[in-house]
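[Discussion] Sanity-checking designs against the backbone

I'm trying to build intuition for which residues belong where. Below is a structure token string of 144 positions. I'd appreciate it if someone posts a full sequence so I can compare it with mine line by line.
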């Protein structure tokens, strides 16, 4: 086939639609600075059983934090990769934060103070970051 569009894309029949879509995808990135801290929080949550040294004494809580940390990290990757589709899931991160706060008493078996404080801090940060993402997503969502 012959090259129909040489050089400049301005003569392409869908150029206006492509420009609008590009502007739509780049717009609404008000919380781009939150994606990094959410990812780091997920990494810390996943590694916290070994950082705080309770992986051996609380194996169920260690596995719990590992799984939730990976889930938070994947949410952060989704927030940065496809923000318009993923920021609706920021409420799920809020729920994960609340669960992290109460999990030592439900999942753990007699956790010590360090484990409780660790999970409360992780949960509070996840809740706050999730609320920031949810608030920004609600503010930037067009209303009919």
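Best answer:
Here's mine. Compare freely.
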């Amino acid at each position: 086939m012959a090259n129909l569009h040489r050089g400049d894309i301005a003569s392409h029949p869908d150029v206006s639609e492509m420009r609008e879509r590009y502007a739509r995808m780049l717009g609404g990135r008000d919380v781009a600075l939150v994606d990094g801290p959410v990812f780091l929080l997920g990494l810390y949550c996943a590694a916290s059983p070994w950082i705080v040294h309770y992986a051996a004494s609380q194996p169920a809580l260690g596995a719990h934090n590992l799984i939730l940390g990976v889930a938070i990290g994947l949410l952060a990757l989704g927030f940065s990769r496809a923000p318009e589709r993923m920021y609706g899931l920021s409420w799920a991160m809020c729920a994960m934060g609340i669960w992290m706060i109460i999990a030592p008493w439900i999942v753990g078996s007699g956790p010590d103070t360090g484990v409780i404080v660790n999970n409360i801090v992780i949960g509070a940060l996840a809740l706050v970051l999730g609320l920031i993402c949810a608030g920004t997503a609600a503010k930037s969502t067009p209303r009919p």
